[in-house]
């Protein structure tokens, strides 16, 4: 089975809703992209809401679509250039608040993707939260979306 048909089969077996709910955590507006036909890396973005009264933390991410998946952020280095870096401690999702993973900021990074992300495909992703536990979502690939940021996926 090709990568794409595997993705489609996985997508067909699950809800296509873009919002996923687990306890107090709601994942909203998730999308993924990779850059070009020869992309080795991709990224996913989303808004994570916490309706509970205690902070939670996105600690790690897993997916089968790439050799590695990491939580990343951007920082401006001494030369004024934005660089990506791994954030091993993850991201706090404040009680009653939200944390956005967005272009140019925090994101889920796929490194060593097995195939470029195709428009409309679904990327399976497991999010590991300190309190909410594991949340499995299907992230739709949207290569056309423009909401700022810069071509940070040229890494590798
Ligand atoms: Cu990154």
Would you give an account of this structure?
The longest helix is centred in the N-terminal third of the chain and has 10 residues, at 3-12. The strands form 2 sheets. Strands 1, 2, 3, 5, 6, 8 and 9 form a 7-stranded antiparallel beta sheet that branches. A 4-stranded antiparallel beta sheet has the order 7-4-10-11. Helices cover 6% and strands 49% of the residues. It contains 1 helix and 11 strands. The chain is globular, with a radius of gyration of 15 Å. It has one helix at 3-12, and strands at residues 20-22, 25-34, 41-50, 56-62, 66-76, 82-86, 91-93, 98-101, 107-113, 122-129, 133-140. It is mainly β. It has a single domain (3-15, 23-154), classed as PCu(A)C copper chaperone (Immunoglobulin-like), CATH 2.60.40. Residues 43, 72, 84, 107, 109 line the site of copper (II) ion.
Which residue ranges are poorly predicted, with pLDDT under 50 across at least 5 consecutive positions? 11-17, 149-156
Which structural class should the secondary elements be placed in? mainly beta
- How many structural units, i.e. domains? 1
CATH class assignment: Mainly Beta
Shape: globular
Question: Can you list the ligands bound to this structure?
Answer: copper (II) ion
What is the radius of gyration?
Answer: 15 Å
Assembly state (oligomeric) = single chain
Number of helices: 1
The proportion of residues forming helix, as a percent range, comes to under 10%
- Mean pLDDT, rounded to whole units? 85
Strand content: over 45%
